[in-house]
Amino acid sequence: MFLNQTTYSTGTSPRSVAIVDVNSDNKPDIIVANWNSNTVGVLLNNGNGTFLTQTTYTTGTNPGSVAVVDVNSDNKPDIIVTNWNSNNVSVLVNNGSGTFLTQTTYATGSNPNSVAVVDVNNDNKPDIIVAN
Length: 132
Known about the structure:
Helix content: under 10%
Pfam families: FG-GAP_3
Protein name: VCBS repeat-containing protein
Keywords: Signal
Order of helices and strands: EEEEEEEEEE
InterPro entries: FG-GAP, Integrin_alpha_N
CATH architecture: 7 Propeller
Shape: globular
């Protein structure tokens, strides 16, 4: 049995969600890719079952799939998102306080749809895998 739902505003046409502690307070936060808004939203956990209003970060056109991994070995989760109509992925590096730097983009094939991150070549660094 579940309690009544609580809703939170996101950008237009949210497509993908990830749950991870982005500000090191040991509370799971929400990250959502907002397709028509061309943003990623971060909703920080208040610790009482509620979340702050989303903070948005600009991405490429039509962000779809979101993944979270520490890309720069600073022990802070960073955001990776596919951008369908930009034919790239955005990487947003975590500042550590639950905020993120301006995106860095990397080219992909046409219409990237899904992203995963794993160390495929055993160099102890995450590799970005994109389906398009």
